[in-house]
Amino acid sequence: MTGATATGAGFVALRRSRGRRLVWLGVVLAVLALACLVSVSLGTREVAWADIAAGVSGSTDTMARAVVAVRVPRTVLAVLAGAALGLAGAVMQGVTRNPLADPGILGVNAGAAMAVVIGIAWFGMQTLDAFLWTAIFGAGLAACFVYAIGSLGRGGATPLKLALAGAATAIAASSFTVAIILPRNDIAGGVRAWQVGGIGGASFDAIVPCLPFLLAGLVLCLLSARSLNLLALGDDAAAGLGAHVVWARVAAALGAVLLCGATTAICGPIGFVGLVVPHVCRLLVGVDHRWLLPFSALTGAILLIGADVIGRVVARPSEMDVGIVTAFVGAPFFIWIVRKRRVRDL
């Protein structure tokens, strides 16, 4: 095959790959729109489309007001939280080159939750702004601790050591959180319900203060796409291609911490979204982070909306928190990944 022929074949393959990704992008956007419609219309009580339309148009009908006041902000929060967790999971897997990386498995969510509980129990913290800053601080501290522990010994921060350090940190933080809550009957009920992870009771008043943190995390993560592609080649190769390895990792990790901290503050620790979503997206668009990161955000939103709708339907007339549903989905997926990759290959 001549050089010109090879170049032409490569160009055609690139166009086919881009076309396939654009098709999947259209499919994912359509599914997300459909999931949002289902989330608004379906729940513990059926709501007719006429009532939904009346509520959106500003009708004073009681049922329409309930739809707008409860289900619409709940759907918006599910989109934001799912996108944040899916994107953060993809970034963490890229930064650590670890297929098991996830805000829950690496202890980031547990660190954020522990910091919030300490603030409530010991310092009387009550405002959402305080929750946000405290959760982000706790998430960042947990991430630094896990990476420091995983870097000890021969070979540095290997994927296996990071996974083990993250699991140990998550267990320790969760245990310490329980120890703080047990003697405090005045806060135990509310904190335990929050710890399960859910989006019930969402309101735009609670969502708006989170937006700057989520936006900052989104920008940092998306801007890190090229750096993550280089880091996937190895630190030496990335440095040889002009990447500042340390700063690339710090910027990407900071974006993930902002996303995880803000989401945990408003929803509680929701696990496994960041683990499942990036693996599914790699099957659709490959390993290029310029495509993988936005797809992970969109697919994470779909997963969390779906989990929320399932939680409303299966436990009628009550509800099952979204954190429980994602655990049912994510735990078998985690076992499958471990069996497929094999521990010695991590």
Set out the fold topology:
Elements: H1 3-41, H2 49-56, H3 62-96, H4 108-123, H5 128-150, H6 159-181, H7 185-196, H8 204-207, H9 211-223, H10 225-231, H11 235-240, H12 245-267, H13 273-285, H14 289-314, H15 322-341
GO cellular component, one term: plasma membrane
Protein name: Iron ABC transporter permease
Subcellular location: Cell membrane
In short:
This protein is mainly alpha-helical. The protein has 15 helices and no strands. It has a single domain, classed as ABC transporter involved in vitamin B12 uptake, BtuC.
Please give the CATH architecture: Orthogonal Bundle
The number of helical elements comes to 15
SSE order, as H and E? HHHHHHHHHHHHHHH
What shape does the CA trace take?
globular
Determine the CATH topology: ABC transporter involved in vitamin B12 uptake, BtuC
User: From the helix content, strand content and strand pairing, which structural class follows?
Assistant: mainly alpha
Number of β-strand runs: 0
Distance between the termini: 38 Å
- Average pLDDT, rounded to a whole number, is 85
Q: Strand count, sense and closure of the main sheet?
A: none
- CATH H-tier superfamily: ABC transporter involved in vitamin B12 uptake, BtuC
What is the helical fraction, as a range of percent? over 70%
* Rg on CA atoms, Å: 21 Å
Strand content: under 5%
Total count of domains? 1
Family: Belongs to the binding-protein-dependent transport system permease family. FecCD subfamily.
Protein name: Iron ABC transporter permease
Keywords: Cell membrane, Membrane, Transmembrane, Transmembrane helix, Transport
GO molecular function, one term: transmembrane transporter activity
